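Fill-in record for Amidase family protein.
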Amino acid sequence: MAKNDLWRLSATELTALTRAGDVRAEDAVQASIDRMKAVNPALNAVVEDLSSEALERACALDKARATGAQPGPLHGVPVTIKINVDQAGHATSNGVTALKDLIAPADAPVVENLHKAGAVVIGRTNTPEFSFRADTDNPLFGRTHNPWGRHISPGGSSGGAGAAVMAGIGVLAHGNDIGGSLRFPAAANGAVTVKPGLGRVPAWNPSQTAERGLLAQLMSVQGLITRAAEDLHLSMPSLIAADPRDPFHVPMPWRGAALDGPIKVAFTKNTHGYELHPEVEAALDFARDALADAGYAVEEAEPPNVFDAGRTGYRALMGEIYALMKQDVDAAGSQTVRDIFAVYFQEFPPYAGQELLQIMAKRTHYARQWSLFLEDYPLVLSPFLPQPFFRPDRDTEGAEGVHEVLGCAVYSYAMNFLGLPAASVPARLAELPGGPQPINVQIAARRWREDLAVDACAAIEARAGRMCLPLWEKMQAASA
């Protein structure tokens, strides 16, 4: 393969070459930088270009390897970091103009773990203000566009990450997820991700001056967005390495024990009153058949009420946000984001006072129900959204827009409230009026069994194909 085509490789394919010494880290990084310079101006996915320091680091990795240093598991892999996580010497702006000069004094655990594994950060990716929209736009850096076309939102809040990795900018993209911020961009762009369960990936920002609210701590996780399911198996073991700065991190191995017999998968199309779009139903049927043919025991079975757990959990989160974050949004947010938050509070009426404490206690009830169900069915295949991904700025269109974007996404934020792993994988490339558009499904898993969810993603991907390939053809045709 020509050097300038190395950006096309998966992380698994690339590390087979870099670790063997067949490809220099410098060449791998340069190829991704060249790709970034070619396509990012039209996407605005990367909002801080770190090319110079990336090439310095890549050269240092090559020199160390030449002198006998053992290459890490992600040796020379180009990655991006979301701008709401600390990277030493760079601003953790979170898409907020008032925070544009908040320079991180040290790396967050997720950045440090990637560095230790040999990855090379080539840029920092865009997020909406306060990382609290399912779309990506802000007054500081502007809008990020979906590489499939400007008729589709890139998702959020890790929208820059999703657009970047699927366009070929970096092989792995860091993101995080408090209500769907890894899975929304994966679904929007046709990428693969797994939202880790609670305690799986160490998290902390050295620049922060106060601890986050309890529900934010319980619901928010760090993760990666990739073009191929195999890359999650390659990279997540490095990401979950322990860090004492997160006292609640659980140091468990990535791979759990093998399960006896065919793995049972609960299959549901229940959208709890929301209309299921035919293309989403077709994607679900495809995923079901792919898993069945791969040896899974797929059965129609209804998990505990995801609508009740999800809506209740998000109302609790809104209660915490109203008490702890609304003042910052009002003071530093744009009028657009203030208006969106006002509708959030209408869509998800915040719990407060004693009621909020009671709901936080009831979280264990919901989690126990799911834990018992997952004893019988280690995996749950479900919709992610009941309809194809929405257009940009849909959440600025009042109550109806917010309802379509977040109100119906109960399978998303329920998993955050429960603290369970949930993966997202494309199962169909739909032909819609605006053009081809990927449709992702969600696979939830037992606690600590992200590996099972990723295995299922790989089985679906083996039949559906990697969505990056038709996307790159589309991008090339559009630029011709």
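KEY FINDING: The radius of gyration is 21 Å.
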